Amino acid sequence: MPDRQRSGTSDAVMGKEDEKESRVMGLGTPEYRIVILALPLFLVWEILQSLFYTDTFTASWRQLLYNRIHCAIGDGTILLGAFWFAALFWGRTWIARKEILPAVVFVAGALTCTIVSEYRNVHVAQNWAYSQWMPTISGIGVIPVVQWMVIPSVIVHNLRRGSI
Length: 164
Fold this sequence. Notes:
Blueprint: H1 3-6, H2 11-25, H3 30-48, H4 55-58, H5 61-90, H6 100-124, E1 136-137, E2 140-141, H7 142-161
Helix pairs in contact: 3-5, 3-7, 5-6, 6-7
């Protein structure tokens, strides 16, 4: 006789516990769902904003592809960091609830990290440069700022709707 029957625990309860455990450990986790939704969005955004960066005009196609994929993965990392920051205060399930404050902290955290990163990478480390078409405010590109207001908001909206 299985242990769960011997202990008097019903299959229905164990099923929910097993499902909860698989969500903690696998494909149903909020992190997994965020990454699956975010990476394609970030990659498309990175490609579409290419004209606003100088490497579009100076780098090889291979280097451009590497740069865009590298940046999309970096964006995903920033997004997960912002998710975990919000989770420190509201738990990992905050994204499924309709509360506004965790979503604001999530978007604001990601946006803040991006502004710091843009400043550092453009002006300090000079890892990339804006082309003449990049609109800027105080030396920070407007396009990446808009990206970080739009994509995290889209992700929260879609995950709360149950789209993924």
